[in-house]
Design a protein that fits this description.
single chain; about 170 residues; alpha/beta; two-stranded antiparallel sheet; 10 strands; about 20% helix
């Protein structure tokens, strides 16, 4: 994405040969939980998070994760991994009987929590980014856009009840 701030992550690899990109997964993240505008998300996705910076980071020690994009509260879009590569955002996951969603999905993180409303700037940028992704990857359509909670329901709740699915889907349709 030409308009995105680039913060390259080492936490990615190649998708399996011949894999079509057919799914878009919406996540949320804040580090520490409920705190916004700090550098910790970038550090986590770059593999250099100081786990001593906050007590809650201890459980993140050694974790190797990334996403394709992050949309910050002010609407800034950060790209960590090329959409053609496999970012490590979904973990153990399944969509329509197919496991390992990282293989065929693009992951977008929204800076936020399950219970704090997302910003107008985030919805605007998410809409524009989604439309661009759907144009580049035509197998992704509104029925193939899910929350992390939909592909890993036992362990994940994001993007949470604060995410206005109707607003978002109305904007992209």
């Amino acid at each position: 994405l030409t308009s995105a701030t680039r913060v390259p992550s080492p936490n990615f690899n190649q998708r399996p040969p011949g894999t079509d990109i057919t799914l878009l997964v919406i996540h949320n993240i804040s580090l520490p939980a409920g705190c916004f505008g700090l550098p910790h998300i970038d550090a986590l996705f770059q593999g250099c998070l100081d786990v001593q910076a906050d007590d809650s980071f201890t459980e993140l020690s050694g974790l190797q994760v990334s996403a394709h994009f992050l949309i910050r509260r002010d609407g800034e879009i950060v790209q960590y991994v090329s959409c053609d590569d496999r970012a490590w955002h979904a973990g153990v996951s399944q969509f329509e009987g197919r496991e390992n969603c990282n293989d065929f999905a693009i992951g977008i993180e929204l800076e936020g929590t399950d219970f704090v409303a997302y910003t107008d700037a985030q919805y605007q940028q998410l809409t524009e980014l989604t439309l661009e992704i759907m144009a580049q990857y035509p197998m992704i359509n509104p029925k193939r856009i899910v929350g992390h909670c939909d592909i890993a329901p036992i362990r994940k709740t994001d993007p949470g009840e604060s995410f206005d699915w109707r607003r978002y889907l109305d904007a992209i349709c």
